[in-house]
Amino acid sequence: MNQYLFPENKLVGFTKPFLALYVEDSYNPELNNFIQSNFNQIVEYYTAKEIDFCYLPYLLQNKKYKEIVNYNRPYLPKVVDENSITEIYNRIITQQTKPIKGGCLALFNENYGDKGALLCFPVAENKDIIEQFHKFANSIYEVFNDEKELKKSNEVNFKITPGKPNKENTNVFAESIVEEESKPYDSGICFHIVRENDADAEFDEQAFKLADEIREKIRQLKESGSLGLIGDILDEIQGATKKLSTVFITNDYRIFLKDYNMKEVEMAPLPKSVFILFLRHPEGILFKQLSNYHDELLSIYRNITVHENIDRVMESIRALTDPLNDSINEKCSRIRAAFLEVIADNLAQHYYVTGKRGEPKKIILDRSLVEFQ
């Protein structure tokens, strides 16, 4: 059975997840009715074999899938009609080295890039359809697991034995510290190395922290497997490319992504003030010079909110512009989280604050895409 389905052992070198997608060169009422009538059972069976089963008419109308597309590709039109389904089928069919006739189960792997399906298995109407669906899933599962077991049996186990470290495989910096510490001190004077603990030093760690609920939302909306494949095809057939949106800031300082169906990016007044400050300075801001921006940041903040206690406002701005205070990193983290609430990181990274240690931190978005009301 495996040799029949996989004569060239095409699963070698691939890893999960696999995607089984039903495709057809023209509408087949019998096969479509079968899939629709048995959809839940098919999905359950394929899931047990660690295969993602995709049926386009259901997928493209699924509310959760639309949410995932809107999060990862907000530049795409929201309407996906029957013509889009036909075009996706045609795109997949034209990529195959062998012609597809009738209905087929096409096998994909996300590591296969845009080379098309690994193989296409024709589904015959004059045979038991459910048996053919099961046969396809069983064969994928068996071949993949046979290969995995073979790799496992061929692995070489290395035993660690005590002895002198190999300098090629050890941390040279750590090694030099050990050597220095073994030398006696003549002067009797002790030197303590104190790690720099300013906002700039902590930026990479603190400014990129995410709350658990944001992290979970990103996980649920991640585009992978069938979702990434179909998204790429939708990009192509609709002539869409990754497009950055204009940031539109209203008179009352609400923030919208104008070209992403006016998605609103919500922030509290303090991170919003920091965001606008960085928008005003495309050249970036060195954290060690934050105190130079005290008055400007205070002015922005007081325009955004006029109801807070002035003493509390002054203390917040003082902390934000203190390069030894971690408040600026916390606000940068809030800015990042606000954008990741509404768009995927490959887009969001253009809108939040980034930068290397010791260099100016900046928002890399082209300022031609910033619009104030």
Instruction: State the total count of DSSP E strands.
Output: 8
End-to-end Cα distance, whole Å, is 66 Å
Helix/strand-derived category reads alpha/beta
| Largest beta-sheet details | 4 strands, mixed
Radius of gyration: 28 Å
Helix content: 40-55%
Unreliable spans are 1-14, 153-196
Q: List the strand order in the largest sheet.
A: 2-1-3-4
Query: Which band does the percent of strand residues land in?
Result: 5-15%
Question: How does the overall form come out from the CA principal axes?
Answer: elongated
Order of helices and strands: HEHHEHHHEEHHHHHEEEHHHHHE
Number of helical stretches of at least 4 residues: 16
Mean pLDDT equals 80
Tell me what the structure shows:
The chain has 373 residues and is of the alpha/beta class. It is 45% helix and 9% strand. It has 16 helices and eight strands. The protein has helices at 2-5, 29-37, 39-48, 56-59, 63-72, 82-95, 129-154, 172-181, 199-206, 212-220, 226-237, 269-280, 294-304, 310-320, 327-340, 345-348; strands at residues 18-24, 51-54, 103-109, 119-122, 247-249, 255-257, 263-265, 370-372. The strands form two sheets. A four-stranded mixed beta sheet has the order 2-1-3-4, sandwiched between helices. The chain has a four-stranded mixed beta sheet with strand order 7-6-5-8, with no helix packed on it. The longest helix is centred in the middle third of the chain and has 26 residues, at 129-154. The model is unreliable at 1-14 and 153-196 (pLDDT under 50).
